[in-house]
Amino acid sequence: MHRLVIQAPEIATQDLKQLARLSDAHQIEAINQRAFKLHGAHIDNEEAVADFCESNQLDYAFIPEDLGVRDIGLVVMDMDSTLITIECIDEIADMVGIKPEVADITAAAMRGELDFRESLTRRVALLAGLPEGALQRVYDERLKLMAGAEEMLAGFQAAGAKTLLISGGFTFFTDRLQARLNLSRAIANVLEIEHGKLTGRVNGDIVDAARKQAELVSLRESLGLRREQVVAIGDGANDLPMLHEAGFGVAAHAKPKVQAEAPYCINQVGLEGVLNYFR
Question: What percent of the chain has pLDDT over 90?
Answer without folding.
Answer: 94
